[in-house]
Write a structure and sequence with these properties.
It is built from 5 helices and no strands. It is mainly alpha-helical. The protein has one domain: lambda repressor-like DNA-binding domains (434 Repressor (Amino-terminal Domain)). The longest helix has 13 residues. One of its GO terms (molecular function) is DNA binding. It comes from Malikia granosa. This is Transcriptional regulator.
Length: 98
């Protein structure tokens, strides 16, 4: 597996998670079908999750995240980590933010 990324993503909409999952899978040089087999989910589920199409049960999404070495944290919006991540996002991607 390739080096792990330490980037933080604030999920402020449903379509943000998919690209994170896809990038993580690709950083580990896994094809979508290989990742699905390793994680015990269907290719269809992986595709829906990565493309933000349809719905994916939370337990399945959590299994994919865990299997790819990712964690989901739920924090109050006013938590310093959330503010830090949003500031970093604005700095690295200037322009209108949601």
């Amino acid at each position: 597996m390739k080096q792990r990324s330490s980037s933080v993503t604030v999920l402020n909409s449903g379509d943000v998670l998919g690209p994170v999952v896809r990038a993580r899978r690709k950083s580990q040089s896994l094809r979508i079908d290989d990742a699905a087999a390793l994680l015990g989910v269907s290719v269809d589920l992986m595709s829906r999750l990565e493309n933000g199409q349809g719905s994916v049960r939370l337990d399945k999404a959590m299994a994919v995240l865990d299997g790819l070495g990712l964690a989901l944290m739920v924090l109050p919006k006013e938590h310093p980590w959330v503010r830090e991540a949003e500031t970093a996002l604005r700095t690295s991607h200037p322009g209108p933010q949601p």
